[in-house]
Amino acid sequence: MKNTDYLLNFVLPSGATGPMGPTGPAGIARSAYLVTFPDVTAPTGITVESEEKLPINHKELDISNLVELNETEDTLKFNAIGYYKITFTVSAYSKYNGTSFDPTKDFVSIGFKNEETGDVFIGISAWTQNDIAEELVGQGIIAVVNTTDHYILENLSNQALCLNSPDLANIMSQSYFSTPLVTIVVEYLGRQGS
């Protein structure tokens, strides 16, 4: 028998169980849900030019006032310093040029961006080869150190993109939540040391 075998088989006796500690405070999940619904006056979709902001026009769920939405400016501000998990979904396509597929133009690229610094923290890109919207999903984590900074979703493509989704009249639901153009789910992960 090797010395190491002896050490592996040696078991120390268990000590007495200590007293139970106090119950901690109940955790509160902090999250927000933002959405852009189709524009019924624009059945062919909403065009967003290159380097323009995507519309964000409804804050549907934010019990703890985690996010401020400026619907006029299509900007978000976070009300707490810390880490956030951001998931956004966009139903979009690039305008079809009518000829053969051009990989330098026929794509969608969208970034979740700090408007003050210009930094893109989360992005998605996909080629689109016709005028049919595809659901694109971007996800990542950001660190908010300044609660006065504004964040946006921006068209990073060198061409216009179109936001579109199926007509609600053709869906077995009257809820616009079944046909969103943009959704953003914000989850607060806390801050270091807390």
Write a structural description.
By secondary structure, the chain is mainly beta. The protein is built from 1 helix and 12 strands. The protein has one helix at 3-9; strands spanning 31-36, 46-48, 58-61, 67-70, 75-78, 82-94, 107-114, 120-127, 134-144, 151-155, 161-163, 182-190. The strands form 3 sheets. Strands 1, 2, 3, 6, 9, 11 and 12 form a 7-stranded antiparallel sheet that branches. Strands 8-7-10 form a 3-stranded antiparallel sheet, with no helix packed on it. The radius of gyration is 24 Å and the shape is elongated. It starts with a helix and ends with a strand. The model has no long low-confidence stretch (mean pLDDT 84).
Number of helices: 1
Biggest β-sheet: count, sense, barrel?
Answer: 7 strands, antiparallel
Oligomer: single chain
SS elements, strand count: 12
Reading the helices and strands in chain order gives: HEEEEEEEEEEEE
Structural class: mainly beta
Terminus-to-terminus distance: 49 Å
General shape: elongated
Strand content: 35-45%
- Calculate the mean pLDDT score and round it: 84
Low-confidence runs of at least 5 consecutive residues: none
Measured on Cα atoms, how large is the radius of gyration? Answer: 24 Å
Helix coverage percent: under 10%
